[in-house]
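Before relying on records like the one below, remember that each one covers exactly one chain. Contacts with other chains, cofactors or solvent are not represented anywhere in the record.
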Amino acid sequence: MNKTELLGRWTKQKSEELYGIKNWGAGYFSISENGEVLVNPYKDKSAAVSIMDIISGVLERGLEMPVLLRFENLLDSQISFLNNSFNEAMKTLNYQGVYRGVYPIKVNQQQQVIEEVTKFGQRYHHGLEVGSKAELVAALSLLKDKEACLICNGYKDEEFIDLCLYAIKMGFNCFFVIEIPGELDTLLERSKALGINPNIGIRIKLAAKAGGHWTDSGGDRSIFGLNVSQVITMVDTLKERNMLDSLKLLHYHLGSQIPNIRDIRSAVLEATRVYAELVKEGAPMGYLDLGGGLAVDYDGSNTNYTNSRNYSVEEYCTDIVEAVMSTLDSSNIPHPVIITESGRTTVAYYSVLLFNVLDVEKLEEYEMPDQLDDSVSEQIRNLFDVNKNLTLKNIQECYNDALYYRDEIRDMFKHGRISLRERAFSEKIFWNTINSIAKEKQKLKNAPPDLEDLESAIADIYYCNFSVFQSIPDSWAIDQLFPIMPVHRLLELPKRNAVIADITCDCDGKIDRFIDLHDVRTTLPLHEMKNGDDYYLGVFLVGAYQETLGDLHNLFGDTNVVSVRINPDGNYDLVKEIHGDSVADVLSYVEFDPKDMLVRFRETAEDSIREGYINATERREIMRAYDNGLRGYTYYER
């Protein structure tokens, strides 16, 4: 290796900078000395485990890609981190109340996730939040800690209300949160009928609003919650019925993924003022539920950008505690139990989606002749001249000319004035020109605006074994950015700029926006594919919402799921395997009966024998293939 090669050698530090893993990884993810992504719930190097080692273990057990890895220790660590941060802030500021976190089931409703939240959260009395009857039924089957809070949001019918009341009777610390005025009368009627006093909360509409994707959760016109006039009416109703002593909790929800700490603090101050006034009205209160909003720094930029946050978890906790104290201390009102519904930050780090690359489409540079035959049309000749005369000085002019002549040639083809072979030759000239312009553009300090996104136009397409719509639907639906990177070969220079395509038959089944510290990238640097070698990519921080929101686009079902426990000595255990949906599974979801389908296809095959298309032996092989197809994984199998 000569000196130039040595100086230009790719290192793990360069990969760390390129993919930003130190910025978004929160200490859980890093790169090893041999260029593989490591995961470590203990945030030190002693127990780090290579994701490639886990992939090997998964494949040896017969599971195919794509696979969703759930690291149960990361969930444990995040629950501890949130609770300890609040407890430390309260201790430092001499706060006289306590913190009680609750996990909103809607963020990830999978049974394993909720079970582990209740298990790991029990030592902190970390509870659950539900927004539907089904979620309440799920919560009551898993929540054992009677000191934990069970917050009941959402629209509630009598059956929902009765179940909540019975939970109170059983000793659960369960709260009815009144979302709309009409709920109160039904609640009081059912409470009287069953002879059970409810714990009542009010969800208020704040004037404060926040930035980010979900701004409509707050503000005067938010869907759920009571305005201040309705709050006073409710207080008066409770006084008339001698039930004001049941009003114990105030709740609001500002939104999800709130990037700016000022918006959070402003909402807390406003809500605490309402809380203080309810105490003055004679309500016992005691609980202040600040809802969700604690953001995840998906891009690692530590800014108030939509996919980031400009504060740390510790700062979030401190600002909340200070804001509550500053309002209540001036009125000599006791400090309440502070509740937050921080689901996203609890489970986002918990899950990593892994998939393999199936194929790559590259925009190749074509070999061009030195000159053209006299028979070549004038427009193709002009396009050829643009390619030959390209310089740094005329780069914009050549770009404009290339587009003009390409469009002219395509129009000539539509009118039958050139052949398909001639058009194919012109396309080669055009894309060679665009490639050359992209290379020359890199020499410019300030590229012309028309050329800014040129890299995405010539990017490779990496076809990957997964469905965007099933596994990371927010990437498609709301342009949510997730960290994506190779999980190995990180000591090699990634020479290709790529966009990622899934295996659905949909032009939206792609990812062409990627995290960047200062902006959004339109391509992702990836490595050249090696013949015969698998290449694995990981999508990180996908634990929140993605499993719940995933759909059956093209009938791609749930992926294989493997739960991993990392031990302090650096070993790991695959503690649970959940096989992904089979073809028969997803067909049954859309009202097909796999048994009936098998019978129908068998009849069709028998008709083909009678009609002379196949014989009985061939029918047997065909039926075996059809049956295997029903049983198979919905994704690409080896």
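Residues 1-7 have pLDDT under 50 and may be disordered.
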